[in-house]
Amino acid sequence: MRAALEAALAPVQLEVRDDSHRHAGHEGARDGRGHFHVDIVSAAFAGQGSVARHRAVYAALGSLMTTDIHALAIRARTPQEAAAD
Questions:
Q1: Looking at residue 9, which CATH number applies to its domain?
Q2: Cα–Cα distance between 78 and 48 in angstroms, integer?
Q3: Entry's Gene3D superfamilies (predicted)?
Q4: How many angstroms separate the CA atoms of 60 and 64, rounded?
Q5: 29 contacts 70 by C-beta, under 8 angstroms
Q6: Count of domains in the chain?
Q7: 69 in Cβ contact with 33 (< 8 Å)
Q8: Which alpha helices (H) appear in the chain, and where do they start and end?
Q9: Range of the domain at 8
Q10: Residue with the larger pLDDT of the pair 12 and 33
């Protein structure tokens, strides 16, 4: 996941957290795909709304969305937004 996001979006900050252990026994966890949280800061998000940012993350992850990832929580910000937090 990290490599795909770095290649596509050149983030200045990236945190990928595997929360799968919190969903043990959950219907979606039975097929082996995981639950993840991504906090990503990239200039590529400038001028984009949250839906476009999420689509960019999904596009960067490509087939991982169907093979490895069951659920994905995303926090996508520009460097300016991150600096203001």
A1: 3.30.300.90
A2: 9
A3: BolA-like
A4: 9
A5: yes
A6: 1
A7: yes
A8: 2-9, 50-61, 64-67, 79-84
A9: 2-84
A10: 12
